[in-house]
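Dear colleagues,

As part of the handover before I leave the project, I'm documenting each prediction I ran so the next person doesn't have to rerun anything. This entry is a single chain, and its sequence is reproduced below.
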Amino acid sequence: MPPAPHHRPARRVDARPLVRPERRARLLLALVLAVLVVFAGRLVQVQAVDARAVADQALADRMGLEQVLLAPRGEILDADGDVLATSVERRDVVADPVIVGEYSRTGDDGEVVSSGVDGAVDDLAGLLDLDPADVRSALTREGTRWSVVTKGITPELWARVDALGVPGITSEQRWAREYPGGPLAGNVLGYTGYSASGDDEDAGLGGVEAVMDDELAGTDGSQRVERGRMGQAIPMGENDRVDPVPGEDVRLTIDRDLQWTAQERASAMREEADAEWVSVVALEVGTGHVLALAESPTVDPNDFASADPSQLGSRAVSDVFEPGSTSKVVTAAAALEEGVVDPLSRFTVPYTWEAPNGQSFRDSHHHEVEHKTFAGVIGESSNTGTVQAGDRLTREQRHEYMERFGFGQRTGIELPGETAGILAAADDWDARQQYTVLFGQGVSVNALQAAEVYATIANDGVRIPPRLVAGTVDPDGTEHEAAPAAGVRAVSEETAQQVSTMLEGVVAEGTGDAAAIDGYRVAGKTGTAEAPDASGGYSGYTSSFIGYAPADDPQVVVAVIVQRPQNGFYGGQVAAPVFKDVMTYALTSRGVPPSTEPARLYPQDW
């Protein structure tokens, strides 16, 4: 019988799983708890430990770009505080092209009447009076979130633009310079524009605006505001602002009304005489204050860009001319001060006179031999008589007194481009020039220097540099007066008084009778000099009259310079009438009382 088959022992089946359910549950619970701990830790870190840093970063992300808050320039004022130059607020309209398309405007009935870019273009172009194509270009410019729509609109117009509610349309404040008087004192005030570096669009570029730029320019501020996703400012959001500080006001010595009168008369005479240009200077005796500095032609600083560049400066300080007979007062003062003549010294005055070195000189018009006192020589403006008197002075003395009266030196006036004039060294004068300087040829001055000579005589022989700036005013109203200019004695009081009496004779009995003013004693001098040209020769004349009043108590000096007049050329013809009108206004407007005693004049003949 075969053996029974072999049977493998049956395997015992264990009913329990390899991983118990309760163990799995504990593992899952531990994992969940670990995750929760991590999240809780992070939450604690974010809300407690790093809360400030996270909040600051979120706020920084919402804050817009820093916007510069431009400071307004200070005002330029006349002597009485009237505004000659000021800054007015203007707005530049800018767009964020990314969100402009969300624009929607509804009518009174609630229906949408304008929407999208097309609607924004139509509404903005109509309101701003712009070409729709230009507005569309600004609103659809790609690759930027800042695009200029237009510049320089008024705050009132911006308010109407803002009321449209076009998304992304904002404005940036700027300041525009305005000159309420238009061309009034245009050559003095100057103008503003972009600086040479291009980083300042409101920099002083001419006149007082340039010289006093540091005082007039303020300090810009800045601002950043919290903005929403669409770029709109969040009401009541964060506002990081540093206010701008306005510039200081600058108060001038200019009398606005006198400036206007001088400017009007200069313009009228330029047209009447068909002259190249006319300058009128008015100075206050004793202070050097410039009361008027008028030019014709002049410029309107509101539109300086269209002006002839040659007219942008002040000719009264930048252009030179040979003063002619008005500078004979320097020769007279020098001769009197040195004692080589007195007002009654006798001179035989021919039409032509030959100097010891053989140089020949003549008077402006033919006449027989005359017998004149020195006062009569000056009164009739005789070249031959003046040269005879001046020949008693050495070369060095002639030069010294011209320097004493300011020739060849800048006055220091607060204007750019001032010339020192031309005064050669005495050793450089040739055989003829050593005499011609005695009657104002071969030497050159500007109009302000010429006026300063007469202000020195009127101020009893003390020369005070002319000044244009009276002081500054801080934004808080604190005033700072400019330090008074120090005077320097040029000649003695006695010499100045003698010259003054001789100048009264010029107006009362000599060549300056057209400058006489009823009720006032006037001292002054005519001048008619050949005008140098670019070729090195002479063409035309420089006609002038300079004087002061009342001669018995001098208050105001007025100088009138007429360059190359075509209709008349003697100073007594074209310059003296302008002097009379300007001086008459100056005296009456300032309340200067008339003279109470008649002049005691020196005899003109012997």
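The chain has two domains: 66-96+172-248, 256-589. The mean pLDDT is 90.

All the best with the project,
I.
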